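Worked problem 6 (solution included).
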Amino acid sequence: MKLAIFDFDGTLILKDTLPCLGSEWIKQGKSKMRYCQIYLSLIPLLFLYKAGWISRELMKYRAMLKFQTIFQGMSRSEIKVFFGKAYTGIRAYFSPTIIDEI
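Solution. The predicted structure is:
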């Protein structure tokens, strides 16, 4: 049995998910240029959120849409390998309560 869990609201991972994934991207030696481009593209969203012009939920949704472009040009197997390796670094931030519940 395979199980896929997506956490973008802080339920499973106690830290924000995108910075955790970005950190893993860099640790794995992936393109720093692509990483910087993605994060620079998120600045306007953060500004809109901080100014109170968009909700946190909308900001996170749009940020995820932008962040997923980091995987453009990668094969399915390359993405799978990335997340397999990322698990090792991210699991330290898993909520013990939610893990027990799962």
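Discussion: The radius of gyration is 15 Å.
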